[in-house]
Automatic annotation (TrEMBL), chain A:
InterPro entries named in the record: ABC_transp_permease (IPR001851), LivM-like (IPR043428)
Organism of this sequence: Thalassovita mediterranea
Topology in membrane: Multi-pass membrane protein
Lineage, highest ranks first: Bacteria, Pseudomonadati, Pseudomonadota, Alphaproteobacteria, Rhodobacterales
Name of the protein in question: Leucine/isoleucine/valine transporter permease subunit
CDD domains attached to this UniProt entry: TM_PBP1_LivM_like
Automatic annotation (TrEMBL), chain B:
CDD domains: ABC_TM1139_LivF_branched (cd03224)
Record-stated family: Belongs to the ABC transporter superfamily.
ABC transporter domain location: 6-235
One GO BP annotation of this record: L-amino acid transport
Gene Ontology molecular function terms on file: ATP binding; ATP hydrolysis activity; branched-chain amino acid transmembrane transporter activity
Pfam families: ABC_tran
Organism: Thalassovita mediterranea
Keyword tRNA-binding: no
Name this polypeptide is given: LIV-I protein F
SUPFAM superfamilies: P-loop containing nucleoside triphosphate hydrolases (SSF52540)
Keywords: Amino-acid transport, ATP-binding, Nucleotide-binding, Transport
InterPro entries recorded: AAA+_ATPase, ABC_transporter-like_ATP-bd, ABC_transporter-like_CS, BCAA_Transport_ATP-bd_LivF, P-loop_NTPase
Record flagged with keyword 4Fe-4S: no
Amino acid sequence: MLTKLLSGDQPRSRALTAILLLILICLAGAPFLFDGVRPLDTAARICIFIVLVASYDLLLGYAGIVSFAHTMFFGLGAYGVALASTHMGRGFDALIVGSVAGALAAVVLALMIGLFSLRVRAIFFAMITLAVASAVAVLVSQFSGLTGGEDGLTYKIPRVLTSANRMGEFLGTRISGKILNYYLIFFASLALFLLLLRIVNSPFGRVLQAIRENDFRAEAIGYRVVWYRTAATCLSAATAALAGSLFAIWLRYVGPDTTLSFEIMLDILLMVVIGGMGTMYGAVIGATLFIMAQTYLQNLMGVASEATHNLPLLPHLLEPDRWLMWLGILFILSVYFFPTGIVGRLRERGKA
Amino acid sequence: MSDPILTLDNIYTDIAQYHILQGVNFTVPRGQVTMLLGRNGVGKTTTLKTIMGQWRAKSGAILFEGRDINTLPTATRARAGIGFVPEDMGIFGDLTVEENMILGCTSGPLDAVRKDWLLAAFPALATFWKSEAGNLSGGQKQMLSIARALAEDRQLYLIDEPTKGLAPAIVSTMAQALRELKEQGASILLVEQNFSVARALGDSAVVMDDGAVVWSGAMAELAGNKDLQEQLMGLSMEAH
């Protein structure tokens, strides 16, 4: 049953299995295990970014395609929900219409970019995605009448998914619509992740891996490389858009900085590399570590700085304001010690 | 001579500014093994890659089953029934032996009878069936490369130096497998530097020099004429 659920792609390492189980338990029980709004918000972001990073891994790790337009697809999904909710009013119909429209728009755009540029060298495709993503970000800022420009859009989601919906108590925790909303995000993310796992372990996924290794060889066997690359781009874009829709449902706000910025694109790249490219499970580890570090490193450093206030230099280095520097150092160290990503390293250790 | 399955008609191929093939003409008879011979660098591999479409012929026609395939994409040529084993093996190292074999079947699942034959011909593949292909030895990778091309019944096989750099024991395994393929009536265009293998397998031979065909005829005729071998290839088959 479990093997079928994971499409036969087991973690293949005890340590990795333990880490993944721990993450799954923490995410599944987040509303009951941790107090306050911040941990729940962090857990929801982790769920969404797991899907976003996994969808990018399908593209980069499995098909060997470097794209800089992934946040654009993420943004399309988010703006789809935002625009539908703004114009149709609060309701599940708006969420569904917005999500489907966002995913469709992402597929159409991915198809156009793919058909025009996937025949050319990989570097040109990367450059074209960068150009298109920048153009879309500028358009979103410029068409402020529709998109809210730099201010973004704030909208209402169904009341049943908000804190205003109180539903009693369970295991000592007050159950509200926010928790329902969290579980919507959690289960949708879980379903999307398992779907991606199924895709990469299907014959289609094997052809993508073959193309990544040697595209002419795959073509010479009889696989249309452009078709497969374009299909992978479309699938990846649709999943990223759905992740964006979930993000929009959770935040009840979208803006260029939260969904379309190049910084998010860099974060996705780092999460894929840290977790381990071409593994899918790397997305789980990468996204969890990265978002935890983004959220809690500053606090941790504050505690460490206080604890070392009697020592020379160290308290200054551990100043909470310097958290970005430490985040950078942590990434450099992780790439240095885990060149195949954490999942790759754990699997290598498992083999030895 | 039986009807040709493949005809190259005045093929010219350039790679960058270099004119590699300069009017190649020859035919591959159906159900026979045609050896493509010649010194290093005369255009044998480029000929195979031009047939497969990796290099597009500048002019001329490539008639496969009577249809000009010169403008078709590589994948369409493969699906039309041409199997290709490149010189560099081209296995997919991150995938298992089984996955490599499954990828070789573009029109359906791997046929059980064919699988049994291939695993009997290349027993090492059965041993490492679930292992990553990247971990195989050079000889095993070459076996996998050939087995993958044979995983599905193709009308024509293009095989580029299958015994290159292999240990004698593996060469004989390879030669035996190709002999069995020949006995099944397959049409094969084979580039081979090992003359004893070429002599044993070839029905006809095409000798190239400087991007063009300089001789074609029966393999037995070439194998039995030392002077001709010296004249065409600069060395005798007996030397190998």
